[in-house]
Amino acid sequence: MLSYSFLQHYWWFLISLLGGLLTFLLTVQGGQSLIFTLGKDKSHRFLIVNALGRKWEFTYTTLVTFGGAFFASFPLFYSTSFGGAYWVWMLILLCFVIQAVAYEYMSKPGNTWGKKTYEIFLFLNGLLGTFLIGAAVATFFTGSEFTVNKANIASMITNSETGFVISQWANPLHGLEALFDVRNWLLGFAVFFLARTNANLFFINRIEDQSLVDKARKSLIYNAVPFLVFFLSFLIWILVGKGFSVDPATGAVSLVQYKYLMNLVEMPIVAILFLLGVVFVLFGIGRGIFAKSSTCGIWASGVGTVLTVTTLLLVAGYNNTPYYPSSVGDMSSSLTISNSSSSPFTLMAMSIVSILIPFVLAYIFYAWRALEKKKFRKEDLKEDGHVY
Amino acid sequence: MELLNSPLLDWSRAQFALTAMYHWLFVPLTLGLGLIMSIMETIYVKTGDEKWKKTAKFWMNLFGVNFAIGVATGLILEFEFGTNWSNYSWLVGDIFGAPLAIEGVLAFFMEATFISIMFFGWVRVSKKMHLASTWLTVTGATLSALWILVANSWMQYPTGTEFNPDTFRVEMNDFWAVALSPFAIAKFFHTVLSSWVLGAAFVCGISGWYLAKKRNVVFAKQSFKVGSVVGLVAILLTVFSGDFSAYMAAQKQPMKLAAMEGLYQGHKGEGLIVMALPNPAKKSYNDGVDPFIFKLEIPKALAALGYHDFDAFVPGITDIIKGGYIQENGEVALSFAEKQARGKIAREALLAYQTAVKDGKKADVEKYKTQLQNNYKYFGYSYFNSPEDTIPRIPEVYWSFHIMIYIGGYLILFFLLATFYSFKDKLDGKKWFLSLSVWTIPLVYICSESGWMVTELGRQPWAIQDILPLKAAVSALSSYAVMITFFLFLILFTALLIAEIRIMLNQIKKGPEAE
Question: Contact B96/B161 with Cβ under 8 angstroms?
Answer without folding.
Answer: no
